[in-house]
C-alpha cells in the first residue's frame, strides 16, 4: 500500500551510526591519505624552504646581511620590485577591461581574446623571451630603427618589463572573468535603465562586487612577476648591477660557488613569497566571507 513501509521478516532498519559508518571509508584509508599528503608536503615544500633559510643563516647574520646589502644584490632587488611595480598595474588595467568586456558583452572575436589571454600559459617563458629578442633585438624587426633612435629594449630594463608583463597577463583577467560571469549583469542593466552612466555603473556596482577577486588576482600576478626567470633570463643579458633580477642574481651567485650569498638572496625571495601567501590566505578568507554574506542576504 502506498505510504506504508513494509519490512521483511528477520530484517531490522540500520541505526543512524551504522548507516553513517556504511558511507564512510575505513579509518586506515583516511590516515593513509593524510600521511601521504603530509609527507609529500614536508618533502617537496617544507624541507626545501627550511633548507633555504638554514643555508642562508648558517654562516651567521653578518654574512647574511652583507650578501643582501651588496651593491649587485641591492640592484637586483630594486630591479625586481621595479619590474613588478610596472607590470602589475598594466595587467590590472588590461585584466579589468578584458574581464569586463568578456563577462558583460557579446562581440565578434570574444573567443579569440580569451585565447590570447591564455597564450602565456601555453607558451614557454623562454620562447616568449626569444620572441622579444627577434622583434626588438639589434638584428630584429625593429632593431635598426631602435638603434638609430638610441633606444634599448633588449638587455635593458624595458625588455625585462615587457617579458614580465607577458608572463603575468592571464592572472588578473582569469581570476575576474568567471567571477563576473557568475555574478551576472542584472544589477548593471538595472542601473543603466535608471540612467547611470557606464563609468558610474563600473565604479559603484561592478568594482565593489569584484574587489576581493581583483585583489587576489593582483597578488598572484605580483608573485609571478617577482619570481619570473625564463623570459627575463633571455632578454636581460645577465649584466651585473644593471639587468639582473633576484632570480638571475641567485643563479649567478650559485654558479660561482657563493652558496651563502645565493641562499641569502633566495631566502629574501622566499620571504616575499611567504608574505604574499599570507596576504593571499587573508583575501581568500575575506572573499569567502563576502560570498557567504551575499548568499544570506539573497535568502533573507
Structural description of this entry:
By secondary structure, this protein is mainly alpha-helical. Helix content is 78%, strand content 0%. It has 13 helices and no strands. Residues 1-6 have low confidence and may be disordered.
Q: Structural class of the helix and strand makeup?
A: mainly alpha
- How is the main sheet built? none
Which runs of at least 5 residues are low in confidence (pLDDT < 50)? 1-6
Percent of residues in helices comes to over 70%
How much strand? under 5%
Radius of gyration: 27 Å
Number of strands: 0
Shape: globular
Order of helices and strands: HHHHHHHHHHHHH
The helix tally amounts to 13
Termini gap? 40 Å
Mean pLDDT: 85
What's this entry about, in short?
Helix content is 78%, strand content 0%. It has 13 helices and no strands.
SSE layout and pairings?
Elements: H1 16-22, H2 27-57, H3 61-69, H4 71-104, H5 110-122, H6 125-136, H7 143-148, H8 157-183, H9 186-193, H10 198-227, H11 230-236, H12 246-255, H13 259-299
Essential attributes:
disordered N terminus, mainly alpha, single chain, 300 residues
Amino acid at each position: 500500500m502506498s505510504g506504508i513501509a513494509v519490512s521483511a521478516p528477520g530484517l531490522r532498519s540500520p541505526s543512524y551510526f551504522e548507516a553513517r559508518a556504511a558511507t564512510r571509508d575505513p579509518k586506515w584509508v583516511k590516515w593513509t591519505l593524510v600521511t601521504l599528503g603530509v609527507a609529500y608536503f614536508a618533502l617537496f615544500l617544507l624541507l626545501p624552504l627550511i633548507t633555504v633559510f638554514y643555508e642562508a643563516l648558517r654562516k651567521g647574520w653578518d654574512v647574511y646581511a652583507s650578501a643582501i646589502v651588496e651593491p649587485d644584490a641591492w640592484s637586483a632587488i630594486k630591479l625586481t620590485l621595479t619590474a613588478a611595480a610596472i607590470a602589475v598595474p598594466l595587467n590590472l588595467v588590461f585584466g579589468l577591461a578584458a574581464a569586463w568586456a568578456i563577462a558583460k558583452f557579446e562581440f565578434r572575436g570574444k573567443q579569440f581574446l580569451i585565447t590570447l589571454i591564455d597564450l602565456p600559459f601555453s607558451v614557454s617563458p623562454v620562447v616568449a623571451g626569444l620572441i622579444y629578442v627577434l622583434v626588438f633585438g639589434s638584428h630584429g624587426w625593429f632593431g635598426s630603427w631602435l638603434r638609430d633612435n638610441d633606444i634599448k629594449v633588449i638587455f635593458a630594463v624595458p625588455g625585462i618589463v615587457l617579458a614580465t608583463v607577458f608572463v603575468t597577463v592571464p592572472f588578473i583577467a582569469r581570476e575576474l572573468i568567471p567571477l563576473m560571469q557568475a555574478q551576472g549583469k542584472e544589477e548593471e542593466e538595472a542601473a543603466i535603465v535608471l540612467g547611470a552612466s557606464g563609468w558610474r555603473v563600473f565604479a559603484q556596482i561592478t568594482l565593489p562586487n569584484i574587489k576581493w577577486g581583483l585583489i587576489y588576482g593582483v597578488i598572484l600576478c605580483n608573485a609571478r612577476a617577482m619570481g619570473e626567470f625564463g623570459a627575463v633570463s633571455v632578454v636581460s643579458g645577465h649584466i651585473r648591477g644593471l639587468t639582473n633580477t633576484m632570480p638571475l642574481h641567485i643563479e649567478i651567485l650559485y654558479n660561482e660557488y657563493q652558496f651563502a650569498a645565493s641562499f641569502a638572496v633566495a631566502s629574501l625571495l622566499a620571504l616575499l613569497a611567504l608574505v604574499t601567501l599570507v596576504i593571499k590566505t587573508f583575501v581568500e578568507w575575506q572573499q569567502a566571507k563576502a560570498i557567504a554574506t551575499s548568499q544570506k542576504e539573497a535568502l533573507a
